Amino acid sequence: MVRVLFLHPDLGIGGAERLVVDAALALQSRGHVVSFLTNHHDESHCFEETRNGTIAVKTVGDWLPRSIFGKFRAFCAYLRMIYAAFYTVLVVSQNEKIDAIFCDQISLGIPVLRLAKNSPKILFYCHFPDQLQTKPGGFLKSIYRAPLNFLEEKTTGQADRVLVNSKFTRRVFKSTFRSLSLDPDVLYPSLNTKFFDTPPQDDEVSCKIPSKSFIFLSINRYERKKNLSLAIDTFRDIAATVSATEFDKMHLILAGGYDTRVSENVEHFQELQSLAQRYKILDKVTFLRSPKDNTKLWLLNTAHVLLYTPENEHFGIVPLEGMYMAKPVIAVNSGGPMETIVDESTGFLCQPTPGDFRKPMLKLFRDPKLIESMGQMGRKRVQQKFSFEAFTSSLNQIIEELLQDPK
């Protein structure tokens, strides 16, 4: 039995959070003891396993600011994580034996974690280099980011082992952190398929969707980088292309993570609603904010086609969810989806333009048999390549190898 502490900045409901929760569940299923230490955990905005006691969660440092006058968000995030690292060293490791620490997203706490009692092994999971996720800025921002970028690279290299979520991310990792000689291992995210095998139940959302509609579904956080406007632009394009009778049968659902503390979520949600209203298709689009797990399950079961609009997505767990639920996935031809979706077999990989998305959307709308065959191929691919069992076995082996390494 191994005791593993997961150190994560914010236990919300994004793809990164889903991965670390699944990692904890995977190790727990092998008899290991797992727990989370996080800077923020809102029980109204988290995965069920962290709310119902399946996984123990402790929150520290949430009183520290998330920004300073709306700026310096990265600095504040790093400060909060360093605080959590010191708490791990001074409190947690003094009261219980920790064998390994699974740290992800923010690496600056790693040198501090090295001071923990009994010298636990440190595994760092790089979803994507943080310095590449910040928005471009001017000269002053480059000065602000320079030391943070330097520290990110140096502290990442101090982990005992580094994992990434895709071959795409590994290439980006190596081209970004040029001073590091390590070659990170790829551990693909997976699905806890038991949840998706649960029969869906109608809820308050189901009654809002026009009955017998052909549903195009998008699931992504309300962030501009997720390119959700592409789905609305394409839907407007379809409205101008097909007959009124055909378009009347279609409906678009945008469902995604929404946090009132994040100004971009609030602003972008309003932007997308305004866009649909300007296109005069607002009555054909349903917007859902932070849908509950049972609602998400109902959506994936009820929808006919899944749309995935981000460009250069690091991995993207949503396409796997859609394929497991036997839905064809139409995604942008870049990043992680190129490793999960087989073009013209489990879905379509397209350029991020309304014209390119429109063609497969209409093709699937007009061919129910193609939907069925692609859906079955997608489900089979997830079962063979991205099963929870394979993920569990790989992660357990990594932990065991890490603990046996004398370094």
TrEMBL record:
Transmembrane segments: none annotated. Mannosylates Man(2)GlcNAc(2)-dolichol diphosphate and Man(1)GlcNAc(2)-dolichol diphosphate to form Man(3)GlcNAc(2)-dolichol diphosphate. PANTHER family: ALPHA-1,3/1,6-MANNOSYLTRANSFERASE ALG2, ALPHA-1,3_1,6-MANNOSYLTRANSFERASE ALG2. This is Alpha-1,3/1,6-mannosyltransferase ALG2. It catalyses: an alpha-D-Man-(1->3)-beta-D-Man-(1->4)-beta-D-GlcNAc-(1->4)-alpha-D-GlcNAc-diphospho-di-trans,poly-cis-dolichol + GDP-alpha-D-mannose = an alpha-D-Man-(1->3)-[alpha-D-Man-(1->6)]-beta-D-Man-(1->4)-beta-D-GlcNAc-(1->4)-alpha-D-GlcNAc-diphospho-di-trans,poly-cis-dolichol + GDP + H(+); a beta-D-Man-(1->4)-beta-D-GlcNAc-(1->4)-alpha-D-GlcNAc-diphospho-di-trans,poly-cis-dolichol + GDP-alpha-D-mannose = an alpha-D-Man-(1->3)-beta-D-Man-(1->4)-beta-D-GlcNAc-(1->4)-alpha-D-GlcNAc-diphospho-di-trans,poly-cis-dolichol + GDP + H(+). Its EC number is 2.4.1.132, 2.4.1.257. Belongs to the glycosyltransferase group 1 family. CDD domains: GT4_ALG2-like. GO terms for molecular function: GDP-Man:Man(1)GlcNAc(2)-PP-Dol alpha-1,3-mannosyltransferase activity; GDP-Man:Man(2)GlcNAc(2)-PP-Dol alpha-1,6-mannosyltransferase activity. It is a single-pass membrane protein. It is found in: Endoplasmic reticulum membrane. Keywords: Endoplasmic reticulum, Glycosyltransferase, Membrane, Transferase, Transmembrane, Transmembrane helix. GO terms for cellular component: endoplasmic reticulum membrane. It holds the Pfam family Glycos_transf_1. Residues 13-178 form the Glycosyltransferase subfamily 4-like N-terminal domain. It is an enzyme of class 2 (transferase). Residues 208-381 form the Glycosyl transferase family domain. Pathway: Protein modification; protein glycosylation. Its main location: endoplasmic reticulum. InterPro entries: ALG2, Glyco_trans_1, Glyco_trans_4-like_N.
